[in-house]
Write a structure and sequence with these properties.
Elements (H helix, E strand, L loop, with lengths): L1 E4 L4 H5 L5 E4 L3 H4 L7 E5 L10 E7 L4 E4 L7 H4 L2 H6 L10 H10 L3 E12 L1
Parallel strand pairs: 1-3
Antiparallel strand pairs: 2-6, 3-4, 4-6, 5-6
Length: 122
């Protein structure tokens, strides 16, 4: 089973408030994920000491590539950022969700968009 680590947004994922993630993946890696596939959700990369599996997600679509400056406003919620704001939490690297969101618009990058549903919390 494939793995996606949610380092920055694990609390939003576990609260059921995250249904999309954006990644800087190589095309070959992105192509290994498929719509309908079950994927392990981890709090950190399994290579990191203390990392653990926190749940299972199901991909609702195959990953697609998108410029960060054309993100829909509704994806602020889908990324889990609204939940983190409500909890007055920063991302794991100390950055506020709004800062990362604004950076995606001011300094656009191409990202793989992965849409999913939470199936199981461990």
């Amino acid at each position: 089973m494939m793995i996606i680590a949610f380092d920055k947004t694990t609390p939003a994922l576990l609260a059921g408030r995250k249904t999309v993630t954006r990644r800087e993946w190589a095309p070959k890696h992105a192509a290994s994920f498929h719509a309908g596939e079950l994927v392990q959700a981890w709090n950190h990369s399994p290579r990191v000491n203390g990392a653990k599996r926190v749940g299972t997600i199901r991909l609702t679509a195959a990953p697609s590539r998108e410029r960060s400056d054309i993100i829909l406003a509704s994806d602020y919620e889908a990324e889990g950022f609204a939940y983190l704001d409500e909890q007055e939490m920063t991302l794991s690297d100390g950055v506020y969700p709004r800062e990362l969101w604004d950076d995606w618009f001011t300094d656009p990058v191409m990202l793989w968009v992965v849409r999913f549903e939470l199936v199981e919390v461990l």
